[in-house]
Amino acid sequence: MRKLTTNLLLFFTFFSFSQEPLFELLNSSDTGVDFINKLTETKEENIITYEYFFNGGGVAAGDFNNDGLIDLYFTSNQESDRIYLNKGNLKFDDITQKSGISYKQGWKTGVTLADVNDDGWLDIYVSYSGNFPKNQRKNKLYLNQKNLTFKESASKYGIDDSGNTTQSVFFDYDKDGDLDLYVLNHNTKVMRNFDAQYAKKLIDENAGDRLYENLGNEKFTDVTLLAGISSNPIGYGLGIVISDFNNDNWDDIYISNDYVEEDYMYINNQDGTFSNQLKSQLKHISNFSMGVDAGDINNDGLSDIVTLDMLPEDNKRQKLIYAPDNFELYNNMVSNGFHHQSMRNMLQLNNGNNSFSEIGQLAGISGTDWSWAAIIADYNNDGYQDLYVSNGYYRDMINRDFMKFYVDERMKYLDGDSDENMFTILQEVESTPLQNYFFLNNKDLTFDNRTEKDGFNGKDFSHGAIYADLDNDGDLEIIVNCMNEEAKIFENKSIQNTSNNYLSIDLTQEKNKNSIGSKVLVYSGNEILRRDVQTSRGFQSSYLGPIHFGLGKKEIDSVKIIWPDQTYQNIKTKDRLNSKIKVTKNTNIKYEFDNKSKIFNVRYNKLNYKHEELLVNDFKVQPLLPYMISYHGPKIKMVDYNNDGFNDLFIGGPEGSSPVLFDQNKNGVFVKSDQPDFDNTSQFEDTNACFFDADSDGDLDLYIVSGGFAEKDSGLPLNDRLYINESGTYKLSSNIPIDNYVGSVAVAWDYDRDGDIDLFVGTRVKQAEFPKADPSLILNNSGNGEFALLDYDFLDNIGLVTDAQVEDIDGDGIQELIVVGDWNYPRIYKYIDSDFVEFTALFFEENLHGWWNTLEINDLDNDGDYDLVLGNWGTNNFFKPTLQEPMELYYDDFDKNGYIDPIWCYYIQGESYPNVLREELTDQIVSLRKKFVTYEEYSTATLNDIFTKEQISKSPKLMTNFLETVWFENIDGKFKLKRFPVEANFSSVNSILIDDFDDDGIKDILMGGNSDYNRVRIGKCDSSFGIFLKGTDAGDFKFIENRLTDISFEGPVRSLNSYESNGKKRIVVGINNSYPLILTLEDGD
Hints:
By secondary structure, this protein is mainly beta. It has 19 helices and 74 strands. The N and C termini lie far apart (63 Å). The longest helix has 17 residues, at 2-18. The strands form 19 sheets. A six-stranded mixed sheet has the order 5-4-3-2-37-36. Strands 55, 56, 57, 58 and 59 form a five-stranded antiparallel sheet that branches.
């Protein structure tokens, strides 16, 4: 009994111990840090006169007196900056008055630390902006006098930049051993109706960024244009981070820009110049990019990127600030030279091959409201880096009930015609403090929101933030600069509350003594923990001190330091865990890159054909669609249609182009086949095709499915076509009934087992009436290639079909029909006693309603029965339905105007709300304008608030509760759900290819996906570059990175096919609006 009691006591003690908050907010009376960034609005200084009035101040953490304790520096927008000396035990002294930095004049923004004169003492560089003349906007360099006083010397060094500066950063971009300077500026004017290509080439001394090269001898020179840095008037720089993104050991630059100007990703060319490779490496970015940080969040040794935006987590604020979707405006922006942008936080996962997969929504960090500082660090010392986000904007300037007034007054002010009552009205704008966010890394590319559980209760207006081990106990405190209230210091309790290990490494060398530009790599098993020595983090903030690694219980294999001159040295850590290690550079050994061996070496070729869609806008047909129905192709089929022993290629044509057929010759070259009956069919939108022997003559005939989405009277032909193979030439046949449905798939199937091949034709949607569905088709073959349309009840209820296949999945010798669709669950039908009977419940444990795109049937585990692989939308989205909280789609002609109104609802924080915004809804159902006069009235409306009970009860409804791409293992005739690695759900999966690609006797899976044409708020789903899943001996699948397979393709993939030619495996990739790719797989390294 005593032993039981002791064990229970230990259990409850541990349970209580493990539930302790990770952080504790310290009182200023205890710390001595009582800084307040006090902001006073006046008629001369306010949000109208200076648009970045509420952007707040920054904070820097570094050891100013070399006593081994991290000190603090806070910038104040309107009053004096403050500097605090760390006395130990989290106690600080305010030494501002004697330090020499007490300048009240001017608008201070960011602060960065560096040993600019390389004397071994940290200097301070403060950025200036605001609605002031140039002589009051000059940035200041405070040189450390080694006695806790500082001397302002920016002019002497030639870096008293007078632009509107947000933040600056020192780094050695040219590897000459001294520190250069990047000054991040922003525009304060409104650019109207400009041509992007023209504006991007302009130079603006106030708004344009600048790069200064350190010449030595206390002199810098402006090399902005020589280095390839943009310095134009449309830059609204809010964030900057330096990191080596392409792992060549040269510092690159990431700039986050507010408004329409895209971010900049400057890759170091190693010759004193940079190339902006943003568009080629990042497929989409944040729209109103604010703070930015870089760090390795998955321990692969690569630097990932987090950018912050303004998307709120809650429904009310989303409805109050979101602008209505306008696809044409968005498309015009892209056509005008800007990048694809969406208003949300982004997590750009570095793929290690000059591409990034954006997974912020999958990670769970995409919506943190009006956010400023993103600081990545390992806060609980478990060996994985976490994320802290500061938040808050003093007045709700983008509340759409107020927005029009604000824009008008801003324009008036810029035109010199501001109303005297403007300031009075500004005081009435609501001030909404916001919650900061704290996320712990789940070690699987997702994060857990631990904000309230880990001690970050309360709301405020936080801006600059940084981490530092203020008490030298081995964990990182968080320091925050707040507006109109005291700065906050959160003490980290990890050392007290966990038994995780850590490592603190302090680097020094003869020149560039803080070793800025170094990398530290900790190797542990298959993981590489990486930290970069850089000065600027988050937003307007800086940290320069020991490098911190949380280790959890990891075994360290080795620790490697790569110095800025690309030499390296290993350090020993045995018996040195949980301590600070001082490392002095002592090596001349050049670092050689450790490139991992590849499974394949892939040769890429393009087919001499380009799939080109006409630009269509389905949202003009139905404005409330969740995504476009168009842009289906190209569907590519690989068959030997002419029986010459070589696989040929058929490519369906988009509207405006005819289908094409390519013959493969003995050399593996594809040559276009002359098919006269194809030539005059460019008016069709080919959505799929099926080769089968329609007339029982031993060769392959062709059925082409027609589709497309347009107004009912648009003239788009929807009738499918049948072509009979006559000695390799396809002749159009009239032996099929004329249909007028939007088709999606055709499957050849002798369902009635009479010896001839019949067809199942799936219907995607009822034209211009999404989500209504026209009946799918059964075309019965008379035996000589003549088809009759038969009527079966199941065809009317099968839903929005996207794909279908037939196979004998239960081993009874009779093929079943397996159908997947949109807002539907996978269905299985048997043909019994002259009718089709649904047997889904016999095979599946539950109905998983998804946005299913495709399926593949194969014996994955080689056990003699068929398994299923189903491609879905993926989990990298903000709606995230579950079985308990599904998405619902109500649809009806609610206002009786002859048009279907689809109302899509999903759960936000436990409550179901319609996705549609007020303007979008009231533009479609005009009568609701009287019910919801303001955005505030609509901001909390549920479906029950919008429509009457009678309207809702009469409305048909569809459901989605599952968006994950998965596979089902056939176990004794039942399909058991199996999950893939998380990477399979980075984006939608539209095509699946199964083969033993690496010839190890185990089947692998290659998936292609992405979806470009969605609602603007959804944005592009394009984070897949081809998902290679290697089959394992254990019967599951392992994701292999694209850089290791050498397989990588981008864009909306619509088809995958494989074949062998000249002894080589080849893959054909069909990509929407692009050239089909032919990949030849050769043995790897």
